[in-house]
Design goal:
The protein is an alpha+beta fold and 358 residues long. Helix content is 24%, strand content 37%. A hairpin with a 2-residue loop joins β1 and β2. α2 packs parallel to α4 and α4 packs parallel to α5. Bound molecules: adenosine-5'-triphosphate. Adenosine-5'-triphosphate (ATP) binds next to α1. Keywords: ATP-binding, Nucleotide-binding, Transport. This is ABC transporter ATP-binding protein. One of its GO terms (biological process) is quaternary ammonium group transport. InterPro entries: AAA+_ATPase, ABC_SmlMolc_Importer, ABC_transporter-like_ATP-bd, ABC_transporter-like_CS, P-loop_NTPase, Transp-assoc_OB_typ2.
Length: 358
């Protein structure tokens, strides 16, 4: 079993700092997703862990043993890791079984054991009837399962996955998510999964590391990212996050705060250490917004658009007090509202995004 300890990691290309002071400890057997927008440095972080790149600051340790630092570099082939790429990286001239067994052959595993491990790995990903096929005779999803079974057969302590579903259609992606979960349970490997798709990260990972412009901005369980985003970027990136300005925040020291949002008094959740502030950004989701009941404190708004979601409508409403502010929320299918209708919106359960550390 292998944990990964990353400390103060930095990497620049030319003058361009791509990974800045990243520290994180990935537990042995944990499934971690690294999530962020295009260009935030996710792939570079993965390449640093794999040993394809050398850091210019900080260190990476596997099971306590130094693998990378500015002055030390363990080559990729000496790191106990398997990699699943978005383009599968299978040998086209080899059969499925030969692809899966290749690394075992190179590392001198005897033929009998090799055959047994390959058969077992192919069975786990339900490809046992396809051992003699060539990769070109398989679908995209099947090829990705071959790549996974290669890591299973090799029994890698760490498996790195670089946007493995990027080339698959939406139905196959859902099926493959299940495949990754099964793989993780069967292998017990420590998994690091790179993606820009937040729903994939939230569905699969024990913890998600969110990166923004080369920095790790939050490393937490999916529910924590959703409920307690550390920055405005995380609040807007996770779920269908909405970020609103609030004023006159008064915290009670026990995780609750009062504030004004667009002139309406609201009760919010906040960190226990939160203090009184003149202004703050508030993170919300459509699920936190609903039609107010008569007499309830509310924001006046006007429906701009309704889109059918199957069983409900997603409504977008423009706030009267701030026409640039659009709030999205869900309306039951029977709701007798049309675009242009005035509504009163109640906001519940918003989160006071912590002030940035100086
Ligand atoms: P994407 O989701 O688009 O793949 P990413 O978050 O994985 O993005 P990286 O591929 O790590 O981001 O790239 C981060 C930045 O580093 C980009 O601006 C990229 O152009 C730059 N970069 C990556 N590799 C190199 C390299 N070998 N030489 C120079 N610049 C590089």
């Amino acid at each position: 079993m292998t944990d990964i300890a990353i400390s103060g990691l930095g990497k620049a290309f030319g003058g361009n700092r791509v990974v800045s002071d990243v520290s994180m400890h990935i537990q042995s057997g944990e499934f971690v997703a690294v999530l962020g927008p295009s260009g935030c440095g996710k792939t570079t972080l993965l390449r640093l862990i794999a040993g394809f790149e050398r850091p210019d600051a900080g260190s990476i340790r596997f099971a306590g043993e130094l693998a990378s630092s500015a002055s030390h570099h363990t080559p990729p082939e000496q790191r106990d890791l398997g990699i699943v790429f978005q383009n599968y990286a299978l040998w086209p001239h080899m059969s499925v079984a030969e692809n899966v067994g290749y690394s075992l052959k190179v590392t001198g595993v005897p033929a009998g054991e090799r055959r047994r491990r390959v058969a077992e790995a192919l069975k786990t990903v339900a490809l046992d009837g396809m051992a003699e096929r060539r990769p070109s005779d398989l679908s995209g999803g099947q090829r990705q399962r071959v790549a996974l079974s290669r890591c299973l057969a090799a029994r890698n302590g760490i498996v790195l996955l670089d946007e493995p579903l990027a080339n698959l259609d939406v139905h196959l992606r859902a099926a493959m998510e299940h495949e990754f979960t099964r793989f993780h349970q069967a292998s017990g490997s420590t998994m690091v999964y790179i993606t820009h798709d937040q729903s994939e990260a939230m569905a699969l990972a024990d913890r998600v590391a969110v990166m923004d412009a080369g920095r790790l901005v939050q490393f937490a369980a999916p529910a924590t990212l959703y409920r307690e985003p550390a920055t405005e970027m995380v609040a807007g990136f996770i779920g269908e996050g909405i970020v609103l300005p609030a004023e006159d925040i008064i915290a009670d020291g026990a995780g609750r705060a009062q504030a004004n949002i667009l002139g309406a008094p609201v009760t919010l959740r906040c960190a226990p250490g939160e203090r009184a502030r003149r202004s703050a950004a508030i993170g919300l989701h459509p699920q936190d917004i609903r039609l107010a009941v008569p007499g309830e404190t509310s924001l006046p708004a006007r429906i701009r658009r309704l889109s059918y979601r199957g069983g409900s409508f997603r409504a977008e409403a423009v706030c009267e007090a701030a026409p640039e502010t659009v709030l999205a929320f869900d309306l039951p299918e029977q709701a007798p509202l049309a675009p242009g209708a005035p509504v009163s919106l109640a906001i519940g359960d918003g989160w006071v995004i912590p002030a940035l550390a100086a």
